[in-house]
Amino acid sequence: MTRRGRVFLRGSVCAIVLATWGIGPSAPGRAVAQDGTVGAIALRPTLGFYGTPGVVDMPTAHAMPDGEMSLSSSAFNDTLRTTFTFQMAPRLSGSFRYSVLDSAGGARLRDRDFDLQYQLMPETGAWPALAVGLRGLGDDSYYSGEYLVATKTMGRLQTTGGIGWGRLGSFGGDRLGLIPQDRLDSDYFSGDAALFGAVQYQATPHLVLGLEYSSDAYDAEVAGGGFERSSPLNFAATYRFDNGIDVTAAYLYGNYAGLSLTYALNPKSPPRSPLRGAAGETAQGPAVVPRSAAALGWDSDAAAVPLNEAARRSLAAQGIRLLSFSRQGSTVRLHIRNERYQSEAQGLGRAARALTGVLPASVDTIVLIPVRHDVAASAVTLRRADLEELEHDLEGSWKSYARADIADARPYPQPAATGAARLRYSLDGYLGPTFSDPDNLLAEGGLRLDAAYRVLPGLVVSTQLRQPLVQGNGGDPDPTSSRITPVRTDATLYESDMDFEVRDLQADYFFRPGTDLYGRVTLGYLEEMYGGLSGEVLWKPVSGPLALGAEVNYVAKRDPDDLFGFADYEVATGHLSAYYDFGDGYLGQVDAGRYLAGDWGTTLSMERQFANGISIGAYVTFTDVSAEDFGSGDFDKGIRVSVPLDFLLGKPTPRDLATTVRPFNGDGGARVQISTRLYDEVRRGQAGTLQRSWGSFWK
After folding, report:
1. Is the Signal keyword given for this protein (predicted)?
2. Maximum distance among all alpha carbons in the chain?
């Protein structure tokens, strides 16, 4: 490109930036369509080759719809990027990216990093959207950079202008000179800064065309000899399908063709299942039987045993197991276990409506006590008259919740002799990753048996047995990356063969030491790598947002070559925990204590849960293990994702598909994995969670 061409191009970019930021001759009000709404690109921004809102390599300032998650994969030249992005809040998004780059010399570079973007200001009629972002928050990330970006929509046209630092300030940054200082590893928004810009045009309802001026010089790729950057201009065409899939074809840096595929899903409006209507939708539940009709088939002095059996059969037809039944005058009280529905509120609604068909007309109050893992978290009292009145009320959901009484279940202990089946088991298949290091991903599938035997109320013996049938191994982790006791980096020793597995075999005793208090003692093989003794106490009021807990464990490492043997490593661990429900599905957690490698520290977690059961969260752990001793990644961090299986399988089920993704699998900050920790079991049956999912009560 000639000198005159470069001057003209940079001048054009400056004009776009100034106009986008409202400094140039742009007329107020043109950012919105004639009907007063923001343009289509702003409502659902395209995702660039980094898997975040953008055109190709450069970001834009609009946020994805609140709660939306996306998985994207892009490829050009010798670069492959796979990114998971989640719009955690209306203005805050986070991304995890795994990239593979092949150099001209044949070496392969793998990069893992996180992104954060916060929208400082949404777009209005007179002002553009304004966002600040951090790209490449990883261990010496290949893509480290920061930016401040503004985006303005004018009908079908959208312009973007921004300033980038780090990698985003590597082309033309020496001429901008906004911050005259060298960039240090620990600094953000420092060193050379450069301008970037973009224009997008909504050609049709499904096609978006884009042009961007990139401020990324690709210095490392050019120096490696495998990349040639002939132009700062990138061109893109994105075709958007109605099912959340976007396909983008691009021409990058004057030399390379690229392709990106993105799938977006919003838990607030999940996709329709090909097997059954809308996701999570099930057949209409039982109708409320008026007492006038119930009285025709029941005598008020009917014996308790037939009534108990009738209730058991009626509940079983709805996937609800009856654990205990008692009647005192006009009130019946039942301990129940929801074995079919993802939402505890839906199980309560089905149980209450089913009972109206078998209870005598003289019964006017129903007390339902949902039990999970033999933990009774609450007692929900429903008036029969309210069920009859609100079944067809358009506002029946919130009215029925407002009239329900949700209290502590401790005054209603479960009787020892209930007649309920003590043995529960299921045999099915499993498939998924077992080792989360992306460089050494281990995927496995086979048969799984889950069984639990209830010895007494509160005392349960359970196990999970697996027989692997297929396995794909990506390699072994670097044995020298961690300099401390290997407590997790040797996980592949337990998972890299096809031998029969006893994943866990344990006895749990659950008890109530006082009002709002819950206790657990667990003994046995707690997980695939550790066995021993675990004890926990939790304080959790039934309607309060705050919970406090304490846990102590003494465990030994299991021998990977002996099904029931132990290796020569024992450790005592323990944590003090605080949990807080911020409302709207946001849950925070802080754990402080001693970890498996003997290190001391703190774990901070944040999670967002949706009414349909989907949850996404992130955590970070800092301990007294130095970054050098921890190895790759510096400290433990990761993303947790849990998706209910009901809309994937086409039938209701309480099971989830859950996984934790870590950029590196390290030894510092590792905890014992205990499947029956109290907080999640208790919270799911208490007021906060029930309120969020009460819309399913009448389903």
Report:
1. yes
2. 100
* Distance in angstroms (rounded) separating the CA atoms of residues 49 and 76: 9
| 331-338 and 365-372 strand pairing | parallel
Whether the CB-CB separation of 224 and 204 falls below 8 Å is answered with no
How many CA atoms are closer than 13 Å to the CA of 65, on its beta-carbon side? Answer: 14
Give residue 497's pLDDT band: very low, low, confident or very high (50, 70, 90): confident
CA–CA dist 482, 486 (Å, integer): 8
Residue showing tokens 């009738």: 310
Structure tokens that stand for 496 in this block: 């890299």
Displacement of CA 556 from its chain's centroid (Å): 31
CA dist list (Å): 278 to 230, 271, 616: 49, 7, 21
The DSSP secondary-structure symbol of 348 reads H
Asked whether 115 and 132 are in contact (CB, 8 A), the reply is no
Q: How many angstroms separate the CA atoms of 547 and 366, rounded?
A: 28
Q: Are 403 and 427 in contact, with CB atoms under 8 Å apart? A: no
Coil, helix or strand at residue 175: helix
Tens digits of residue pLDDT in 151-165: 999 989 999 999 999
Residue 588, both tokens: 């925070």
466 touches 432 (CB < 8 A)? no
User: Taking the C-alpha atoms of 670, 674, 675 and 680 in order, what is their torsion angle to the nearest 10 degrees?
Assistant: -80
Residue 577: partners with Cβ closer than 8 Å, 6 or more residues away: 548, 549, 550, 551, 589, 590, 591, 592, 679
Torsion, Cα 392 395 399 401, to 10 degrees, reads: 90
Are 507 and 523 contacting, i.e. CB atoms less than 8 angstroms apart?
yes
Q: Which domains does the chain have, with CATH numbers?
A: 3-265 (2.40.160.40), 443-470+499-677 (2.40.160)
CA angle 91, 92, 95 (to 5 degrees): 140
Alpha carbon distance 55, 35 (integer Å): 26
Q: What span, in angstroms and rounded, lies between the C-alpha atoms of 530 and 522?
A: 13
Residue 513 carries which side chain, given as an amino acid letter?
P
The per-residue pLDDT for range 54-104, each reduced to its tens digit, is 999 999 999 999 999 999 999 999 899 999 999 999 999 999 999 988 765
DSSP letter assigned to residue 596: T
Select the more confidently predicted residue: 37 or 405: 405
Helix axes 304-316, 344-355, angle to 10 degrees: 130
Residue 78's identity, in one-letter code, is: D
- In the 8-state DSSP scheme, what is residue 673? -
Give the contacts of 465 (CB within 8 A, at least 6 positions apart).
448, 449, 451, 500, 501, 502, 503
Q: Based on the number of CB atoms within 10 Å of its own CB, is 628 exposed (0-12), middle (13-18) or buried (19 or more)?
A: exposed
Asked if 621 contacts 602 with a C-beta cutoff of 8 angstroms, the reply is: yes
Distance CA(216)–CA(668), nearest Å, equals 35
Residue 4 CB burial class (10 angstroms; 0-12, 13-18, ≥19): exposed
pTM over 0.70: yes
Q: How far apart are CA 176 and CA 193, in angstroms?
A: 6
Region of poorest pLDDT, from 33-47, 171-185, 260-274, 428-442: 171-185
- Bridge partners (DSSP) of residue 202 are 208
The label of the residue with tokens 């834009």 reads: 60
What is the predicted pLDDT for the residue at 385? Answer: 93
User: Whose CA is closest to 346, among 613, 137, 638?
Assistant: 613
Compute the average pLDDT of residues 97-116. 80
Q: Which two tokens stand for residue 16?
A: 């776009």
Residue 252: how many other CB atoms lie within 10 Å: 23
In angstroms, the Cα distances linking 296 to 293, 299, 357 are: 6, 8, 11
DSSP state for residue 297 in the 8-state scheme: G
The angle formed by the CA atoms of residues 447, 449 and 455, to the nearest 5 degrees, is: 175
